[in-house]
Amino acid sequence: RPRKSGNLLSLVPSKKPCILVLEPTSYAEAIKIAEQLKRKRPVLLNMARSDAELARRIIDFLYGINYAQDGHMVNVADQIYLFTPSSIEIRFPGRKDGGRKENFPV
CA-to-CA distance for 30 and 21, rounded, in angstroms? Predict the structure, then answer.
């Protein structure tokens, strides 16, 4: 919450940065997750509880939302996806590609 002191404005963060960890089981939840991405919040999705077709549809939709905002998406493990805004770079240290990795849904 901003604090005002004379003519100076101090921006003090009201919350610590966090990664939302979500396990969507319906397409309707993808709309709510998209709202988080639009607010530039990183999201980690566990799609293990979703059937394969629903998981593909949700990932495709959220990838499109994130792509439109220059965000990043990585498949970090089987059925686990990390979406980050453009201000957060995803790195995998020790890789031949310099530690940068960007996976796209198939």
Answer: 13
Contact 25/50 with Cβ under 8 angstroms?
yes
Do 79 and 22 contact (CB within 8 A), yes or no? no
Report the pLDDT averaged over residues 2-12.
54
Residue 61, Cβ neighbours under 10 Å: how many?
16
* CA max distance for the chain: 57
Edge to edge, the sheet with strand 80-84 lists 20-22, 43-46, 80-84, 72-77
Task: Give the C-alpha separation, 79 to 81, whole Å.
Answer: 7
Predicted TM-score (pTM) of this structure: 0.75
